[in-house]
Amino acid sequence: MVLLDLFTAFVKIGFTSFGGLSMIPLISSEMMINGWMTSTEVLDIVAIAEMTPGPLGINAATFAGMRVAGIPGALSATLGVLVPSLSLTMAAAIFLSAFRDNEVLRRIMKGVRPVCMGLILATMVSLGRESYFAGSEPLWTGIAIGLVESFIIFRWKPGVPVIIASAAALGLIFA
After folding, report:
1. What's the confidence (pLDDT) of residue 174?
2. Which family is this protein grouped under (predicted)?
């Protein structure tokens, strides 16, 4: 029964939050209302979830489920927090597929593409400014690492973990 309770608690959290930090109060409330954790234990779970790679909500759900009911609890809570995103994504896919030939939808999607590219470009500029400049002074080490990594990406097309590891290694060497 606790597995079903964990699952439904995290489905509710997934549907009523916007992910990330907005989930913390809901997770805390569910854990304490059900008597699964104390507020201190919730803080520990959130701290661990923040330190590990991946989305906070999924990490927190996994760690909370593990704490409450072991591996089955971790699976139950993680599936629960994923259900809202997966169901909305599948509904959107079905909707887009059903209206694929609709001219209005085609025009909307044609307009969304440049907006997405603009958002990606804005993020690149913002992160680039932080990575390659300290105020108005160029950070030559960061620029060199960026150029080397760009060459590696275009020449050999390695996976993301290889790029991250090689950039980290270059950062350690040149720091």
Report:
1. 86
2. Belongs to the chromate ion transporter (CHR) (TC 2.A.51) family.
